[in-house]
Amino acid sequence: NAGVMQNPRHLVRRRGQEARLRCSPMKGHSHVYWYRQLPEEGLKFMVYLQKENIIDESGMPKERFSAEFPKEGPSILRIQQVVRGDSAAYFCASSLNAVSGANVLTFGAGSRLTVL
Amino acid sequence: KNEVEQSPQNLTAQEGEFITINCSYSVGISALHWLQQHPGGGIVSLFMLSSGKKKHGRLIATINIQEKHSSLHITASHPRDSAVYICAVRETSGSRLTFGEGTQLTVNP
Fold first, then answer.
1. Which residue is closest to B102 within chain A, CA to CA?
2. What is the pLDDT of residues A15-33, one digit of tens each?
3. Which of A24, A76, A84, A105 is the most buried (most CB within 10 A)?
4. By CB neighbour count within 10 A (0-12 exposed, 13-18 middle, 19+ buried), where does B45 fall?
């Protein structure tokens, strides 16, 4: 059981390029959450997905950001036309169930995006 | 005012000391998480609480639902405990987590 796998761990992009961050949840987990940690700031919720569905994207910027969790393969957080303010650590977490307060979250190691 | 407030923001202790980190929240919750983030950046889930108290090794977490307050205690602290400790709450109205700003703990040998 490899846990939550995120890649790449580090990504450097120039302004205007696209960034794609991948998250493979723990085996058996069908709920994925993305969080962003800006430099010197706390973690902030971005989006919650189940297989093939976006459940809650209230924390996602309205433009340039999108997320998906296809039936097969990892969840992907996509940032188009990156700007310097997108530089942050992006964490993925997965859980077995969602609504119950008793479910446990497992975090990935994070993907650190640097926009030059 | 943040929905989740942690105190202190920074804490320096000597090895062996008893550590307490506090978390207060202002919303109704279904669960509260304590997380640990090491200097390398990885996040580990330490506890998830909905009531009472949990213990794991030298770590103890308590929650008082009526007072909307939780504490994380570390007994016999060690330099390897140095990390950022983050409180996060899952609101009853949804499934998202709201995080505190974190407490930077440094334990000196």
1. A42
2. 999 999 999 999 888 899 9
3. A105
4. middle
Please state the length of chain B: 109
Q: Which two tokens stand for residue A11?
A: 């990504």
User: What pLDDT digit, counting tens, does each position of A34-77 carry?
Assistant: 999 998 888 999 999 998 899 999 999 999 999 999 988 999 99
A113, two tokens: 């995006």
- CA separation for the pair A109, A103 (Å, rounded): 20
Sign of CA dihedral A43, B50, A104, B48: positive
- pLDDT greater than 70 at residue A102: no
Report the pLDDT value the prediction gives residue A101, as an integer from 0 to 100: 45
CB atoms within 10 A of CB B28: 11
Cα separation, A113 vs A90, whole angstroms: 8
Query: Does the structure show a pLDDT above 80 at B30?
Result: yes
pLDDT of residue A105: 82
CB proximity A99 to B under 8 Å: yes
B90–A98 C-beta distance less than 8 A: no
Contacts of A104 in chain B (CB under 8 A): 45, 48
Distance of CA B28 to the CA centre of its chain: 18
Indicate the pairing of strand A10-13 with strand A111-115.
parallel
Q: How many residues does chain A have?
A: 116
